[in-house]
Amino acid sequence: MDRMENGLEIIMMPLGSLYTNAYVIRDPGQQRAVVIDPADDSWQLKGALESYEVEAILLTHAHFDHIGGLNMLRRETGAPVYIHPAEQEWLQNPMKNGSGLWPDVSDPIQCDPAEHEFKDHDTFTFLNHQWKVMYTPGHSPGGVSIQLGNAVFSGDALFAQSIGRTDLPGGNYEQLISSIQERLMPLPDEVVVYPGHGPQTTIGQEKMSNPFITGILR
Question: What would you report as the CA-atom Rg of the chain, rounded to the nearest whole angstrom?
């Protein structure tokens, strides 16, 4: 367990060949969970969900390293999947999700379409808590960040001391900087950032020391 947020356990697991952070958010009292970015069908992900009912699978975006365990998780839990419409078809297309571009890193990944699509400013209730969707494209066209109380799951938009790469198909550096500046930096300094790769950080820490951000905030 990494942290508690309003009585929920937030478990971060670096999984797969690119050490992508998958997140399991659990309500121990209700034995229910939400999964964000099932990066790999590893024993760690299965173990964290043992005896838990999964309410939803949320995808910050559809790059192959963030959906490597999606087929397994759907098969074993039957949970509905949520994604931004700009990347709905990426789930079915290995060339778009990248698994077909780097065969030395991943087998081709094809998944059924997501049952639900995010829109900017959408709010959902999972685990008896409100979750808010923020559209934060730039790393990819359908990238979103998901806020849960004083936690935000930023996908590959914002990292500790860094930002997502924008040299992949559909990436846009100016768009990513705008997403971070307009959607993430206005959050309170104490909000904990759970990124798609690397360690957690806070909004305040990134305002002070992230080299990609300090310049645009002056």
Answer: 16
Amino acid, single-letter form, for residue 67? I
Separation between Cα atoms, residue 132 and residue 118, nearest integer Å = 10
Is the torsion defined by CA of 11, 129, 83, 179 positive or negative? negative
Give the C-alpha separation, 80 to 54, whole Å.
9
Alpha helices in the chain (DSSP H): 43-48, 70-77, 94-97, 173-179, 203-209, 214-217
pLDDT digits (tens, 9 = 90+) for 53-73: 999 999 999 999 999 999 999
pTM for this one?
0.96
CA angle 39, 148, 136 (to 5 degrees): 65
Round to whole Å and give the CA distance between 152 and 54.
20
Spatial neighbors of 129 by CB under 8 A, at least 6 apart, are 6, 8, 148, 149
The tokens for 167 are: 């040299």
What residue has token string 């909000």? 191
**Structural element, H or E, at residue 194:** strand 192-195
Concatenated DSSP letters of 106-157? ------PPPSEE--TT-EEEETTEEEEEEE--SSSTT-EEEEETTEEEEETS
Structure-block tokens of residue 102: 């780097």
d(CA 179, CA 157): 8
Strands (E), 37-122: 53-58, 81-83, 116-117
